[in-house]
Amino acid sequence: MTLRVGIVGAGAAGVGAAYALRDVDAAVTIVEKSRGVCGRAATRRRRDCTYDHGANYVKDPDDRTESLLRDLGEDGLVDVEAPVWVFDGDGDIEEGDDRDDHKWTWTEGLTQLAKRLLARTDADVRRDTRVESVERGDGAGTWTLTDTEGATHGPFDRLLVTPPAPQTADLLRSTAWGDDRLAAVTDAVADVEYRTIRSILLHYPFREDHPWYALVNVDDGHDVGWVSREECKDGHVPDGESLLVVQMAPDWSAKHYDDPLDEASAEAASLVSDLLSDDRYADPDWVDDQGWRYALPNGGVDAESVRVAEDAGLFFAGDWVVGEGRVHRALWNGHDTAARMVDGE
Ligand SMILES: Cc1cc2nc3c(=O)[nH]c(=O)nc-3n(C[C@H](O)[C@H](O)[C@H](O)COP(=O)(O)OP(=O)(O)OC[C@H]3O[C@@H](n4cnc5c(N)ncnc54)[C@H](O)[C@@H]3O)c2cc1C
Predict the structure, then answer these.
(1) Which of 2, 4, 21, 155 has the most CB atoms lying inside 10 A of its own CB?
(2) Contact at 8 Å (CB) between 226 and 217?
(3) Which of 44, 2, 39, 56 is nearest to 247 (CA)?
(4) What is the mean pLDDT of residues 20-27?
(5) Is 3.90.660.10 the CATH classification of the domain at 57-109+194-297?
(6) What average pLDDT does the structure give for the chain?
């Protein structure tokens, strides 16, 4: 009998799960609150620029990630070759240990990852649809989702929940299921904390030839956590222009999360111009931003507690389940969890 699978979230974990189920007798429905897919691996287009304003790239420390990305099509696949350098709280910059890892994205942006994976599935992706509550139909042993418009999705034999832990905990608090395991899972999920990052995009009508693609702060002593040059990604920034992705440090980001963009970007631009010892960077010709309240998990959930409801068909995946904020880790966690949903192992 066809297995009915519901997935909350079309980020790397949710899409990785759908991809794993592509050759299985399963009807997969993904419910995603945003208009786009790929979650925090996000891409935006503005004024002829394409920029990855959440995750910067996918790493491939394992062979299976590289071979998956290549299988999805070499066309438009971009490996950012310039290295990542480091800086400290005093703004001293030095060469980093880049270890020659690949840094993958696509000319059309990182969201290609989810788009290309989903194109190989028959999954029904319901975008712009925020799940508000979950209900267990105890007699039938199925799960049903209700969105913020009051529409229902399901019933599903298996449910996979992938939003960041605090949002998953909220969903579990609005889950109707008279089983003691619900409270235990909710407590375990609610324990996972996230760091906040405000990404600020600074565009300039000139391009400098730096030897690095990105600079990362390694001692948590600077208000800037990361600066990268989107022009190092083929097809992202027109010739002669540059676009800096500035990820502000978690403390700064939490404090200035709701500051108006002109104030926040002026401060970011001033910090970057000091860091790069170049006054021109204090004066971008246009700016943009994105707040990531739940950017990166501080750790992982207790692995056992989050699996106690699997025999009732309730599963979880995402970077907070593996305990590392990385696209490939979330992707494979979703992929491997989906295999367990089918095999029950
Ligand atoms: C600024 C920043 C920089 C980063 N840099 C890197 C990097 O360079 N390399 C790297 O590998 N990783 C990086 N990461 C981490 C990486 O983006 C994440 O670890 C990974 O994308 C997590 O995938 P996920 O599927 O677990 O979660 P998500 O991508 O968050 O997916 C969850 C999905 O659930 C959806 N959702 C949430 N609530 C609901 C609801 N109620 N109903 C329906 N849908 C819902 C969300 O919209 C989202 O699409 C970065 C993250 C940030 C924020």
Answers:
(1) 21
(2) yes
(3) 56
(4) 96
(5) yes
(6) 95
Q: What angle do the packed helices 165-173 and 180-190 form, to 10 degrees? A: 150
Ligand 1 environment, Cβ below 6 A: 8-14, 31-34, 39-41, 54-59, 130-131, 162-164, 167, 171, 197, 199, 247, 292, 295-296, 318-319, 325-327, 330
Q: How far is the CA of 38 from the centre of ligand 1 (A)?
A: 7
**Which ligand 1 atom minimizes the distance to the CA of 333?**
26
- What does each C-alpha distance from 298 to 83, 252, 322 come to in angstroms? 25, 17, 11
Q: What does the pLDDT read at residue 137?
A: 87
For 29-75, the pLDDT digits (tens) are 999 999 999 999 999 999 999 999 999 999 877 889 999 999 999 99
Same fold, 3-41+114-191+300-343 and 57-109+194-297: no
Pick the CATH number of 3-41+114-191+300-343 from 3.30.365.10, 3.50.50.60, 3.40.190.170, 3.40.50.970: 3.50.50.60
Candidates 113, 276, 124; CA nearest to 204 is 276
How far does the chain reach from its first CA to its final CA, in angstroms?
Answer: 19
Q: What is the pLDDT of residues 102-138, one digit of tens each?
A: 899 999 999 999 999 999 999 999 999 999 999 998 6
Query: Distance between CA atoms of 24 and 35, rounded to whole angstroms?
Result: 27
Ligand 1 atom 12 nearest Cα: 326
